[in-house]
Specification:
Blueprint lengths: L2 H14 L2 H22 L5 H17 L1 H14 L3 E5 L2 H14 L4 E4 L3 H5 L2 H7 L3 E4 L2 H9 L15 H12 L7 H18 L2 E4 L3 E3 L4 E6 L3 H7 L3 E7 L3 E2 L5 H13 L6 E5 L13 E7 L3 H5 L15 H5 L1 H6 L10 H12 L1 H4 L11 H5 L6 H14 L5 H14 L2 H4 L5 H10 L1 H4 L12 H9 L2
Parallel strand pairs: 1-10, 2-3, 2-4, 4-7, 5-8, 7-10
Antiparallel strand pairs: 5-6, 6-9
Helix pairs in contact: 2-12, 16-19
């Protein structure tokens, strides 16, 4: 058993028994579930909309090299600079180089899962640069020293009382502020940071290849401020976020909004085509786009797992997953949690260390049913399990257990052997992982096969 698997089992065991945690997350997901049906009403044919979105992403991923090269050509024509980063280390090195060349002391960043993936904040701190999260949920998590809990709502596991207590401890505010008052406190602090920052960092929801632009959708406006106030704007984005055309946003923005938060459209939607042009009064003086691979091409070269790159990070599969709703986002121990995280993390960070995530699923198929772009998530989880077996990753004891189970299952005389107390004792002692949190297995005194033979005398 790997260290990451041991940590996952320990954390999930604690969280599954934490009733207060379960109450908070179920309350917040209930609000989401109440809103999503309203957002879906904007689509005359929701099934068709999701099919079209999947087909567009299929085209984009199948021609990814061409799409990215077209984006680079169009973007650089307007003075933007594109940096290709093979891994997290390269991306961090480039960001540090840009910051040091501009004598950056303060960096503001909007919500971005890919910057979590490369551990940007920790790298900035190590190099003496203050990196400030400007999304309210991310800011709360940064104050608490925690990673995001959810792809879309980073502080989903915190109640308003938890946030008020945190602000009192970290910022010295009154301990019983309302959510509105807490938001105003954060706003006052962050507005000063926008003005002070030399560099702003954002992610991108989509890379638009035919226009050479990035699209960002948000509800708070912090991404706009992060890329407009500082003189230098850096976009960090995974290479899979590409869509072929500007017109595709007419489908993807409403789809992402509905499945992400239940809105018809998020409040702020921006298309950024490069640094400030001649005659323009707003925008950064220079703009960089870092296209991050970080093992995404490992997924791309797998004809089955490639489908996971269609993901638009709406977070709907997390909200539908019974496992996620019990153990929470932090138990996964990875940047991306829930079903989509369990699919892609083994390929981004190593199957040997993360194969256990693909078993953290009931295979109920709720994730597949709710996916905005119809990714067959439960099938990809099964594929991960298959690949781990093909690579001989299961432990010796696990291999022996399944070997014995196979032998017994294929031989009726063995299946009928030792019914009752003997079989109960043997199986319950062998499968300790099952009985650790459950009662012992209880087999009937006779199998159905034996009862059938007695009934019909053959």
């Amino acid at each position: 058993m790997t260290t990451t698997e041991q940590t996952f089992l320990a954390k999930s065991t604690i969280k599954a028994a934490d009733l207060d945690h379960r109450r908070k997350i179920n309350f917040n997901i209930k609000q989401y579930n109440n809103k999503v049906p309203e957002g879906k009403q904007q689509f005359p044919d929701l099934h068709l909309a999701r099919e079209r979105a999947k087909n567009i992403k299929w085209r984009a991923i199948e021609t990814l090299d061409q799409q990215l090269e077209e984006f680079e050509l169009k973007f650089t024509k307007r003075g933007g600079k594109v940096i290709w980063a093979e891994d997290a280390a390269q991306a961090i090195d480039e960001i540090i180089r840009i910051c040091k060349d501009r004598n950056c002391k303060t960096l503001v960043k909007s919500k971005s899962m890919v910057t979590e993936e490369i551990h940007l904040n920790a790298a900035m701190e190590k190099n003496g640069i203050e990196s400030i999260e400007t999304d309210l949920g991310e800011y709360i998590q940064q104050l608490d020293g925690e990673a995001p809990y959810h792809i879309v709502t980073p502080a989903m596991h915190k109640s308003k009382e938890d946030v008020a207590k945190l602000f009192a401890e970290k910022l010295g505010t009154a301990p019983h502020l309302t959510p509105q008052q807490l938001t105003l406190v954060a706003r006052d602090i962050l507005r000063e940071k926008y003005v002070d920052a030399e560099v702003g960092v954002t992610g991108a929801n989509f890379i638009i290849s035919d226009m050479g632009a990035v699209a960002v959708t948000e509800n708070e406006g912090n991404a706009r401020l992060s890329c407009a106030f500082p003189k230098t704007h850096i976009v960090v984005v995974g290479i899979e976020k590409v869509i072929p055309s500007l017109t595709d946003l007419a489908l993807f923005w409403p789809l992402l909004s509905t499945y992400g938060t239940g809105q018809q459209m998020t409040v702020y939607n921006s298309i950024i085509t490069g640094p400030r042009q001649a005659g323009e009064t707003d925008g950064p003086e220079e703009m960089f786009v870092i296209l991050l691979d970080n093992n995404r091409t490992n997924i791309l070269k797998d004809p089955i797992q490639r489908e996971s790159l269609y993901c638009i990070r709406c977070g709907a599969c997390l909200n539908a997953c019974p496992v996620y709703k019990n153990i929470g986002g932090h138990a996964y121990g990875s940047t991306y949690s829930g079903p989509i995280g369990s699919v892609i993390t083994p390929h981004l960070s190593g199957l040997d260390e993360n194969k256990h995530l693909s078993y953290a699923s009931s295979l109920c198929g709720a994730c597949t049913d709710t996916c905005a772009v119809k990714i067959n998530l439960h099938q990809l989880l099964l594929e991960n399990r298959y690949q781990s077996v093909q690579q001989q990753l299961p432990s010796f004891s696990e291999k022996i257990a399944w070997k014995l189970w196979k032998i017994a299952s294929l031989k009726r005389s063995m299946m009928n052997m030792g019914n009752g107390s003997i079989k109960n004792k043997v199986v319950s002692s062998l499968f300790k992982g099952w009985t650790k949190h459950r009662s012992d297995l209880e087999f009937s005194k006779k199998t159905f096969n034996e009862m059938w033979k007695e009934q019909y005398k053959h």
